[in-house]
């Protein structure tokens, strides 16, 4: 498993505004999209490409095309949905599948309440979108789902991770060279409610303004 924390002053700045409890939902949504586009630039470094022959107005040349089938992007509802637009802006031909998952805030168990993915993911590159990696329970379930269907490799883009969640993911997938996590920040840790500290609060609530 490879973990990459994107190191860029604009990412740090946008993340700071996102963390601020006074940032309203419309600004939060806009910043989330912008951050994802910046992180996606790093996360897609290993996207599969092949040579393609094209004609420019001047001559024939060999360029670069995405290998088909193109990658599958999987936002984890709700909060991951706020990252979709920022991702598809960079990868407009990607297909999109959906996983609806919610963490039970008492047991911290991740429950899957919706799934709309291709049955067969054999050989596919998959990009999972979820802003928060807290205990890691949600991503471990999501990755299991995708690998069980044959996904070849998984790159997850998150905004924040807690060291505890990363360690849990590492314990399950550490030996794999086909799991990548791209982040804007590794925060200090989890509080007594397993929220990320300093964090940004509940990402779904802040994106959509509904407190659950
Ligand atoms: O690493 P974990 O401890 O599993 O927690 C992280 C999960 O919690 C949040 O979703 P939530 O369950 O709040 O659902 P929501 O997106 O509908 O708000 C977040 O978007 C992750 O999916
Ligand atoms: O800090 C956290 C932890 C889980 N889910 C969130 O949205 N935020
Ligand atoms: Mg939530």
UniProtKB/TrEMBL annotation:
Its EC number is 2.4.2.9. Allosterically activated by GTP. InterPro entries: PRTase-like (IPR029057), PRTase_dom (IPR000836), Upp_B (IPR034332), UPRT (IPR005765), UPRTase/APRTase (IPR050054). Keywords: Allosteric enzyme, Glycosyltransferase, GTP-binding, Magnesium, Nucleotide-binding, Transferase. This is Uracil phosphoribosyltransferase. Uracil binds at residues 196, 201-203. CDD domains: PRTases_typeI. The keyword Mitochondrion does not apply. HAMAP family: Upp_B. SUPFAM superfamilies: PRTase-like. Pfam families: UPRTase. Binds 1 Mg(2+) ion per subunit. The magnesium is bound as Mg-PRPP. Residues 5-209 form the Phosphoribosyltransferase domain. It comes from the Bacteria. Pathway: Pyrimidine metabolism; UMP biosynthesis via salvage pathway; UMP from uracil: step 1/1. Its cofactor is Mg(2+). It catalyses: UMP + diphosphate = 5-phospho-alpha-D-ribose 1-diphosphate + uracil. 5-phospho-alpha-D-ribose 1-diphosphate binds at residues 78, 103, 130-138, 202. One of its GO terms (molecular function) is uracil phosphoribosyltransferase activity. The keyword GTP-binding applies.
């Amino acid at each position: 498993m490879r973990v990459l924390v994107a190191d860029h002053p604009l990412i740090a700045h946008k993340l700071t505004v996102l963390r601020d409890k006074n940032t309203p939902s419309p600004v939060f949504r806009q910043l989330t999209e912008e951050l994802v586009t910046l992180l996606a630039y790093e996360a897609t470094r290993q996207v599969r490409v092949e040579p393609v022959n094209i004609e420019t107005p001047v001559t024939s040349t060999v360029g670069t095309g995405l290998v088909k089938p193109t990658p599958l992007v999987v936002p984890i509802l709700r909060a991951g949905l706020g990252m979709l637009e920022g991702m598809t802006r960079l990868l407009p031909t990607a297909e999109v599948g959906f996983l609806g998952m919610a963490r039970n805030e008492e047991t911290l168990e991740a429950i899957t309440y919706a799934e709309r993915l291709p049955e067969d993911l054999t050989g596919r590159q998959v990009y999972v979108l979820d802003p928060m990696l807290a205990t890691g329970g949600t991503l471990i379930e999501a990755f299991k789902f995708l690998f069980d269907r044959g996904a070849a490799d998984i790159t997850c883009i998150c905004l924040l991770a807690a060291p505890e969640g990363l360690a849990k993911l590492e314990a399950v997938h550490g030996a794999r060279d086909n799991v990548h996590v791209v982040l804007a920040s590794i925060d200090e840790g989890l509080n007594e409610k397993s929220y990320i500290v300093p964090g940004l609060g509940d990402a779904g609530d802040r994106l959509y303004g509904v407190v659950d």
